[in-house]
Structure formats: C-alpha cells, structure tokens
Amino acid sequence: MEYRFVYLGKTYRVIIESDEQSWLVTIADKEPSRVEVINSIPNCLSFIMGNKTINAYTIESGGKKYIFVNGESFAFEVDKGRASRTPGVAAAKGGENVVTSPMPGSLVKVLVSSGDNVEVGQTLAIVEAMKMENELKSPIKGVVKQVNFEEGNQIDALQPIVELTPIYPE
Amino acid sequence: MISKVLIANRGEIAVRIIRACKELGILTVAVYSTIDKPSLWVQLADESVCIGEPPPGQSYLNMDLIIETAKRVGAEAIHPGYGFLAENPDFAQKCEEASIIFVGPSSKALRLVGDKVAARQTMWKTGIPIIPGMLAVGKGIEDFQAITAQVGYPVLVKASLGGGGKGMRIVKNEKELGDAIAAGRREAKSAFGDESIYLEKYIEEPRHVEFQVLADKFGNIVHLFERECSIQRRYQKIIEETPSKALTDELRNRMGELAKRVIKAAEYTNAGTVEFLLDRDKDFFFLEVNARIQVEHPITELTVGVDLVRQQLLIASGEKLALRQEEISQRGHAIEARIYAEDPTHDFLPSPGKIHWLKEPQGPGVRVDSGIYSGCEVTPHYDPILSKLIVWGETRELARKRLIQALKGYVILGIRTTVGFLIDVIEHPKFVEGETYTNFISKNMGTWKPKDDALEQALVAVAIVSSQTPATAKVVTAQATSPWQELGKWEMGGHGV
Q: The pTM is what?
C-alpha cells in the first residue's frame, strides 16, 4: 500500500507491505526497512527497526495524524490527491493571491483596503496571538480585491484575510 | 497566618501557588476569564470566580474587579504570580488601601525598582556597580551624545519603564543615534505609555546571572545563590541553570552580598531577584530587580531545598525569616527548560490549539510544573508558556543528560511546542562546554528543523498506524492478542498501490 504524508509543505511517499511477522516500509526512494511491531495499544506504538527500539506516540484528530518520537513531534496530513501533484510542494490554499495567517489570533491592524496597490513584501495586516505580533506580507505585486475581516476580529489559521488581484509586469 | 488567598494569575504559576497554599492549609480562590473556565488551576482551587472576558484588560488586568472579588470572597491576600499585575505598583497600592495583603513588596519599593532610571540612581548612590551610562532620562540629543563620548559605542537605548526588550535599540555609531532615540521613544510610548528613555554602554556577549533574594519585614535578608539565564530568544529566557559555570565561589559570594545590598537600598521585602550582566572579564553590573516570583524559581528550590512560594506566603503573613545565610547552601545542579506553545520550524510563531494527548516525563530528579492536561485547549489570548521541565542532578553533566532524557519523554500531541528544539540546544557542544552567552540561540542554532532520522521514524509510525486503524474507527485495543488480527480493514490512503 502507498501513502503520501505531507509535513512542512513536503510530501513524503511511503510504501508499506506486510507478511505475518513484520512490515516492510519504504520511504521515498530509500532502501526498504524491515519493521517489527512489539506493542500496539491506543496512542502508543513500539517497534523495532534495524535493531533499534522506537516508541512512537500517536493520535489522529481533525484529519491530521500526530506522531511523537524521541522528543520530536510531527503533524502529518494525508495527501489524497493524485500523483500528478508535484512532490515536495504543498498545495497553497487559494494560491498566492490570497493572504492568510499562519496562526490563529486577533487581527490587530489592517493596513490596506480594497483598491490599494501593494508591492511584494508590503505589510497588509498584523495578527496577534500570545502577546506576539505577526505581520502578514503581500506575496505579490497587485491590487487589493477585498479585505474579509476588520480590526479586532478573531481569525483562524489559514482563513483568507486579504484577497489580491495580481499585476503582471508588461 | 493568612487563611485565604486569591490568585490573580493563570496557567502553570497559578497551579504552583495553589500547591504551596494547600501545603500551608491556606484556602485558595482562582479567578479566570470566560475562556479559561475548563483550566487546570480553576479545577484545583478551593473556590473559583469568573472575572470577565478573555482580553487581559477585561479580566486578569482588571485591578478594581480583582480587589473587589477578593473582598467579596473573604480573601485576605492576593498572590499576583508573574506577569499581569505582579509588578504593577498601582495595583500593590490599591491592595494596601483596601487592606488586602499583596504577596510581594510594598508599592513604594515596586515603584522604585520598576523605574530603571530611578533604580540606577539609587544603586549608584549606594555604590553598586551599574552599567556605565545615563543617570537621568535623556532629553535633547546632546544629552545622549555627551554620554556616548564618555562610554563609547556601541550603546543601548532603553525605555525607563517596562521590559521585555520593548523600546530597546542597539546603536553602533553616531549616525544611528538620532533615529534610535526617536524609534525608542515611539516604542516606549506605545508599550508603556511613557516615552522616557536613557542610554547605557552595550555589553557585548554578556552572561545573564541573577540572584534570588528573600527579605522579611524585619530587615532580615538572605540570598539563595544565582541562576544563569543566558539562553534567550527575543529577550525571553528559555533555559536556566544553577549554579553558573562562570562564577567562582569568591565571585558568587561577592555578587550575592551585593544583591542583598540592592534589596536593602530599595527597602524591598518578600521574594525578589537581582539581575546582573557579567562580561567576559568577569566584571558585573546591576541590571534590574525582578520584583516577583520568577518563572525559573524551581531551579533554586531544587538546589537549595527551600520552597520559595511558601516563603513568599510566610513573609506576606508577617513571619520572620527562619533561614540564615550561613545555613543556606547549594547542592548539585539544576536546569529548567520552558515548554512553549510555539513552532520552532516557523520562527517561533505561537501555536495555540487543542492538546489531544499529553504524557509528562518521570524519573529521579525530574519535576514538571504544568498548567495543561490531555484534552485542554491552549488559547491564543495569553503568554505561550505551557509548562516547565526542571531536573536536578549531582553534576551539571548528569542534570544535562537527565533533561535530554526527560524531554524525549515529554509527549505533547496536537500543537507545536519547543520540546525538540530544546533538546538540540542542550545537546549543542557549546552548551555542553557551558559557553552560554545571551546571543547563544542566534549564533548557534540557525534555522531549526527536526532531525531527519526522527522524521523517518515518524513516517514509519504514521504508515503503520494508518494501516492499522481504518477510517471506520476500528480501534486496536490493548486486549487484542495480535494487532494483525485487524488486518483486512486497511484504509487505502486515497489511492491504491
């Protein structure tokens, strides 16, 4: 069976096969590894891979698969798209004409309004969470098509905040 | 002895204070904003009162409402924790006027130490070494130029009130001075409502060494040794340890005695911390007094065997210090790592959300001061600190290894945290050597991402888990003789082989 897991915008292809005793796992183009599960209870998975004992902690929620192993935690999304998608590139939600916040928080400043011309890297809005401000910058040169929120609004991560119409160089 | 305390704070420190109160037989009252209702400290307190909406100004910073609540529930004292109202002299004064005990120094002492220029003046008059620079708020640019002519560049422009790096500007030469003054004033005005700034010599690659002090209302003062807090990002500490590798016994005693003199000069009572900068020549300068219980207080507790929050409550109750300087000694080494809800792969952006699953580390010499639980929600409204992991070991190296092991067992699933990043800091050769300066993170850590082998192991785990638990939510239970009995119900992951 083949899976595609997305982590930090990169898609990783994992092929997993099993016989009665163990799994054979192949990540991307690497050599396959033989994996023997020694314990599997809810939220905990222990396995041996190349003589190494690995204890992984897992939970699935909201379509994401969370894995903790050796002090590092990962949130994977399952890429259900077809193989036509370029590996290694995440599908930007709405493309670069839509500016979103990478974190949820409170919209403390909106610095543009519809019809404004904006340059690449220009700060469009400021989102605050946990006492820290994050500037949302324009990824393109363009015109503000629409601003979807007002100052003081609570916003979620990846919600479209400012929509832009690109200006292409002549 | 106080019989009932209102805790005007939230998160892990509220939990910590409740614990100390319960041990002393003091009843506790938690206050919370609407969004914090299902939080750990609200559950642990004897009584809990909702005080308003999530924005801090409408709840945790609402001085009059908090004092009124204390009166209504019959609390004789308010413990302010750290942050929020902890170092606000107006709040301390309002408590004094309402005959409520503020667990901390007097409003007068708070006012003095909170004003950096006034504190510099006081310490200078008392003969405490201060960073060379201005002794009064700067007015025209010629005030600033006169001092730079004396101390030389680089210099640091600082706000007289407040902290956290706001209003602070490093100035490398004469050309940058005018702009830095204007920008510093602007930032100070917006952050603290006061545009007073001053200038001091910029100390390059310093260590941040602070001394814990306890002072009762009878003039007894003891210090409980140092904490080194050089590992910082955005002027915020993330790893602290004690003892500091940079101090000799002679220097330690000299700085400790000086810290006591600072506290005496400020007529300060209760627990406080005197911060110093230590330069490469081992010269040290008074930086400021942190007039509160510090986030990093547990490392002192583990090495000297004194419960500092308990001491705060005893001093506030009017008890005499039972500790004598000559009886206080350090044993072993302690390190604290702060666990923040932040994404180290994205410039430490806040990462609020739900903690789906939590498993805290255990073992000899491991302590977790936490404000979270499995299933709790981390809100975007407040500071991102989730918990603190503190370890003690007989030596620094043992404590360091213990901390790595403990971090590797600190499972937080659902939100991004600094756990993996902290492991890499503590494993860094420069940290191992004790080469810890305040620029450690920017100099040594660069752009961080999890190690490749961990990612590989996680990918194996996620593939196995995906194969085991199909979308129909058939859960493999602990009772199953073999998980492979569940085979045949695999989720196809979107597309087949």
A: 0.88
